[in-house]
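Course exercise 7: structure representation. Students receive a sequence record and must write out the corresponding structure in token form. The form below is the worked example handed out in class, using Proton/glutamate symport protein @ Sodium/glutamate symport protein (431 residues). Read each field label carefully; the graders check that inputs and outputs are placed in the correct fields and that the protein name is recorded exactly as given.

STUDENT ID: A-19
EXERCISE PROTEIN: Proton/glutamate symport protein @ Sodium/glutamate symport protein
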Amino acid sequence: MKKIKFGLATKIIIGLVLGIIVGAVFYGNPNVSTYLQPIGDIFLRLIKMIVIPIVFSCLVVGVAGVGDMKQLGKLGVKSIVYFEIMSTIAIIVGLLIANIFHPGTGINMNGLSKSNISGFVNTAKTVSHNGFKDTIVGIVPDNLFTSLSNGDMLPIIFFAVIFGLGVAAIGEKGKPILKLAEGISEAMFWVTNQIMKTAPIGVFALIGVTVSKFGLQSLIPLGKLVITVYGSMILFVIIIMGIVAKLFGNNIIHIIKVLKDELILAYTTSSSETVLPRIMTKMEKYGCPSSIASFVVPTGYSFNLDGSTLYEAIAALFIAQMYGIHLSLFAQINLVIVLMITSKGIAGVPGVSFVVLLATLGSIGIPVEGLAFIAGIDRILDMARTAVNVVGNSLAVVVVSKWEGIYDDEKGRKYLKSLSEQKTEYVVGQE
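STUDENT ANSWER:
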């Protein structure tokens, strides 16, 4: 008997569709969350469990391979410059689209349901006292084990970089440590592949819970916002990122093709962490050096959130338009500056886009209470911005590799060709 062996992307899509069906059928039934939420949480915990060991070991190996503080400093500067340019462009594009299409104009707030955002408000109050300066200071860990237990990625990256330089500096004595780090990274990538086999089940559970809670009908009153956000995300990826990729001798469609499985998984789970290890692997196969992929991807998760900043700009103007508040050109320029600073100041905070908006809206005279009207559909919007964040960070690896002059075009073409040649596998078996 012929058996069709589906790829990971196909299985995840099947899980997504089944989850939507179950959520829609049992809309409003609390039992859906009771039974499915633990399954989704277990999947996300499995992913989070492996992220730090992979990032740490890969960074140590990559930095030890570079072994040059000056070269590493150049790599860091180029990455940050690129991150800031792309984030600023994303904010400006978001503001332009919101000004052109006015998604918040004519919205009847009386017909919208409000969600409780007190948890985000408390988080925003906490981080607003820290600010950008404290975030920079916080990059240097005072206790590595505290950072590891809290999952604070920037201090972990900082220590891994310093440790990798130390391993390179001691020469022969550092080789056993380097071998250990290589072994850890290879073992953790094997674990990643095993965990990914459960991704369709995790996606099914997470989507089922989401749809059962808000219902598909909740999208109708805010349909214009959803369409505007999704349209702007597609526009940004195809046109803006497409131009950037072209300028650096690459093709954004090729990058999307390489990341097909990861994009579907990131979109359906609304979590960039679920694909972080696989992005590093994929970008290395696509021709980027391991040292650059292992540095740029984790750093970009804190500083290069193109999808999030694009959404924040649209959401800010949406709420202003909903309240009938006209923002002058000066006010919108101020919004760009505040969003640029705030989004970096609270990198890594859960619900970062919501927290950024809460910390930003009040400073430019927009009622923060307006966020309660869109909190109910935030998961749907979060899915789109997560996918864009993934593409943006993957493109950053290619750009920095090209900028450094060490991108392997031939390796990238061969990997792309191997993906094109992959077909649905048919396994002949006996019943």
